[in-house]
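Everyone, carefully examine this protein record:
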Amino acid sequence: MFDKMYKNIGNKIKIVAQISAIFLSIICIIIGISYTSQNIFQALLYIILGPFFSWIASFVLYGFGTIVENLDKLANSKVLGTKNNQSKKMIKTTYSGNPLFNEKIMNYVYSTLKDISKDNIRRIKQENNNWYTEIQSLSDQDLINKINNSKDWQTEYIILCCIEIQQREKFDLL
């Protein structure tokens, strides 16, 4: 229930800043109008400077909302450990829908392969050709099991499993 209240909180803070600037400006104008019969100079200060300072004061709150919003975007982009702006949504939409290759597995494949150059991929395939041939003959479920038990295997073996999943799913993030 409360999750919805705090979703996209940065944008909500920015909206509160805008509303408060408008509200305080209106209040200052009303106060200024009420002073017109007593002191015209003081009334003009309220009418002119009140909205201006209300607007300036909202900068702090609006800036804070922008910071929160940007930090949220940054945190979401780091979910996959990316160094660029590729988003989690890209991974979600690239796989074929094979229930075995779920989002968790695809994110693992991506995070494993993202920093390996194509030359290193070729080298690993060549140096471990027997493994790669074996991996190509594995079922999807066996590939998932190998990845889920990655601590039992050498790094190159897991990389080859990830390459095979990447090729079966036909997405290119390399």
